[in-house]
């Protein structure tokens, strides 16, 4: 008869994920950043209500990326034009030009578009998992893996937010989670206490 596998408690799982992150993920991450000559990136994440998103990855300082009005101007869009009709080929072309310009300014050297083989290692007997992904996807996976290892629930219920920044060989992940706070109250009025006044 096969021996029944013991189920991990959530505390055991959290400890294992933290250990795997430090033992396997971080060394690989720093090696990938060095091999791909990536010296800087920044990415924000936001979530709530059982859903969360990682936003644009900046491989340059945010101040070096033109704002939306500047991008529209560079794309040759009339400043008076506020709406795009995406079924109009000319409008679609202009909108695609703005998107392409923003992508270029966010990542002028194309770091995020490079691809790598990454190998996720486990300590609990699960076979290693290899896959070919873009650097952009890889960065998101590493940050997400850290948040899961620390049991930081940034996308359920009230959610949370944060920023991951890599600079000068240091990965820093900062953020906060939101919690709903209820301040209860209860009032109890008995009509017997007011009977005389009501009759008088």
Counting helices, strands and paired strands, the structural category is alpha+beta
Q: Quaternary status of these chains?
A: single chain
Major sheet description = 4 strands, antiparallel
Write down the overall mean pLDDT: 87
Low-confidence stretches: none
Secondary-structure element string: HEEHHEEHEEH
Global outline: flat
End-to-end distance, in Å?
84 Å
Physical arrangement of strands within the biggest beta sheet: 2-1-5-6
- Strand tally, please? 6
Strand content: 15-25%
Total of helices: 5
Describe the structure.
- The structure is a single chain.
- The protein has five helices and six strands; from the N terminus they run αββααββαββα.
- With 200 residues, it is α+β, with helices and mostly antiparallel strands.
- The strands form two sheets. Strands 2-1-5-6 form a four-stranded antiparallel sheet, with helices on one face. It has a two-stranded antiparallel ribbon with strand order 3-4.
- Helix 2 crosses helix 3.
- The mean pLDDT is 87.
């Amino acid at each position: 008869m096969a021996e029944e596998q013991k189920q991990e408690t959530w505390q055991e799982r959290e400890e294992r994920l933290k250990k795997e992150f430090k033992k396997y993920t971080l060394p690989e991450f720093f090696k990938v950043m060095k091999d791909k000559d990536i010296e800087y990136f920044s990415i924000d994440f936001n979530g709530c209500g059982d859903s969360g998103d990682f936003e644009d990855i900046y491989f340059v300082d945010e101040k070096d990326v033109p704002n939306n009005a500047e991008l529209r101007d560079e794309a040759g869009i009339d400043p008076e034009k506020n709406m795009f009709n995406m079924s109009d080929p000319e409008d679609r072309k202009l909108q695609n030009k703005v998107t392409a310009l923003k992508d270029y300014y966010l990542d002028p050297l194309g770091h995020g578009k490079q691809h790598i083989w990454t190998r996720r290692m486990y300590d609990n007997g699960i076979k290693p998992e290899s896959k070919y992904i873009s650097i952009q996807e890889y960065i998101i996976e590493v940050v997400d893996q850290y948040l899961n290892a620390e049991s930081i629930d940034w996308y359920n219920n009230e959610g949370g937010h944060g920023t991951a920044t890599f600079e000068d060989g240091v990965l820093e992940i900062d953020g906060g989670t939101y919690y709903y706070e209820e301040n209860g109250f209860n009032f109890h009025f008995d009509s017997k206490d007011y009977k005389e006044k009501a009759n008088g």
